Amino acid sequence: LEARAAAHAPDASDDDDEFDRTPDRAPGLHAWVEQIAALTEPDRVVWCDGSDRERHELTKVLLDEGKLIRLNGEYRPGSYLARSDPDDVARVESRTFICSASREDAGPTNNWVDPAEMKTELTARLRGAMRGRTLYVVPFSMGPVGGRLSKLGVQLTDSAYVVLSMHIMTRVGAAPRALIESGEPWVKALHSVGCPLVDEAGVRHPDVEWPCNPDKYIAHFPHEREIWSFGSGYGGNALLGKKSFALRIASVIARDEGWLAEHMLLIKLTSPAGRRFHLAAAFPSACGKTNLAMLRSTLPGWSVETLGDDIAWLRQGEDGRLWAINPEAGFFGVAPGTGESTNPNAMQTIWGNTIFTNAALTDDGDVWWEGMTAQPPAHLVDWTGADWTPGLGRPAAHPNARFTVPAAQCPSIADDWEAHDGVPLDAIIFGGRRASNVPLVLEARDWNHGVFLGATIASEQTAAAEGAVGELRRDPFAMLPFCGYNMADYWAHWVSVGRRLGPQAPKIFQVNWFRKGSDGRYLWPGFGDNVRVLAWIAARLEAGNAETGRGAGDASAADGPLGVVPAPGALDVSGLDLAESDLAELFAVDPAAWLAEAELTEEFFAGFGERVPSELHAELAELRARLTRA
Length: 630
Ligand code: GTP
Ligand code: SPV
Ligand code: MN
Description:
This protein is 28% helix and 20% strand. It is built from 17 helices and 31 strands. The strands form seven sheets. Strands 1, 4, 5, 6, 7, 8, 9 and 10 form an eight-stranded mixed beta sheet that branches. The chain has a six-stranded mixed beta sheet with strand order 14-12-13-25-29-26, sandwiched between helices. The structure holds guanosine-5'-triphosphate, sulfopyruvate and manganese (II) ion (MN). Sulfopyruvate is lined by residues 91, 235-236, 242-243, 285, 310, 332, 464. The site of manganese (II) ion has 3 residues, from loops.
């Protein structure tokens, strides 16, 4: 690596790399790398090319340093386990900042610090922060390289684990670098774990398994399209192409350019008649996107193919329709709950070439987590490195343990998942984790009603971020932690996008897989049986299509106070062990409880003041009127 470092340093005289011979081709890039290297004082600078050779070298470094554990190649070839610091296991929303010019532009749902102040503070933290470490320069593309909806970035990082993860999650290498050096716009993404190996006195300290810093900052500068992340090595805090770029910065670019950057899965649904539908769905973190994206149908003739599991960029095409891409190249998926019975496609995807983070280790060198099998192994090493046996009363894997794996390995991946123009979108689905009140499925009456449904999503909090798990919180559009500007302006942007799309706009639906009975059990079987809900959605999409009529199934529906719901018998529940009373409860609407929710929605909107679009106030008034009549 050291030799390569010399060869790839920006000022190297060695000219085996055609780009390094002409460092002036991207003066912004080279000057920035030099400036950050001067500030952070790494031992060396390595320009990454995304190659297999680089992956092997970085893996070897991480194994030698004890930062990765090689899994048993018989069960999990090319796969590794990383164990994080126990205080660096999830996104840190309290330390995530949107540093727009004014506090109002960040809005009440984001932490805001004046951009100049934040840069001063972070510059102080970053001074000498990479001493004793390597600074990696990682050019990447979000979306297929050169695609119409794709965007470029460069991440600087002092974590080889982050580089390896970026290899999987984004398109790293010479092709995006060439586009950047040809003058295409790109996003600056600076990351340091904030854990120098050499102190101020020049004394070198031993490294640790997972370097990080208790003082964390995930700072975004929307105006400059820049990200500065300090102190964490974990997923959403550190893989800056993902939430920081593809959602927070991209949502601002999207607002300015008239498109949408969303926390959505993307799938292709095929009916028994061979009709194809492209659906996007926004559910909050750890609320079922990966599972729906990889759904294996329990209804004969229906199938789902995977296009994306976490992020979608949506843009109007020349034909006037809304087109969607998945800007990522891999899955950073929740491990617990993933097993053959719930998500067999995910289990097959992670057959090998996978980085696991905070899973438990079996005695024969494989990984395990709660929900992978019905019975846990008799002995494990848990995610903290401690011995574990069943009955200890604590989970063996961290609840936010994750797998990082190339999307191409997914058996259900769609042929056109890397199409440069994306796919035309037929429907958008909103959902959350709601034990009560929210029905299994409903259809919005029109676009603005759909925007109201998205804006008012509430969901029980999960382990994907710090905070009390289970607490109900508003998570509009599943974007609460990811919107890079004022949430009310974002709602207004959605209203305006719908106005522009007109009759070509996708239809909007809402789902809830998580409703519970009074005895605390889930009323709906979920997972593969969610295709039954998708089939009704497809029928509704076909019902509006005069040419093909009702080829997709029973589209009959009834108007309810919350929206349009399946008419009795329209939802295919054949073969399910579902009591009539449970089915009724899945769709039950309690007007009193909903009037109370409407009260909370009014309070929620009030927190955004005058910026809430009038269309949403009108939808709230309409909801109340319908509930009162109900
Ligand atoms: P992020 O990657 O955090 O954005 O999450 P995600 O939305 O992709 O969530 P994921 O699909 O990984 O699901 C999170 C948890 O919800 C897992 O433990 C799943 O097993 C569980 N889950 C997903 N779908 C269903 C469902 O239909 N029913 C039930 N009961 N649980 C589900
Ligand atoms: C989420 O929390 O929504 C994730 C995982 O998808 S992370 O990349 O850590 O944000
Ligand atoms: Mn997510």
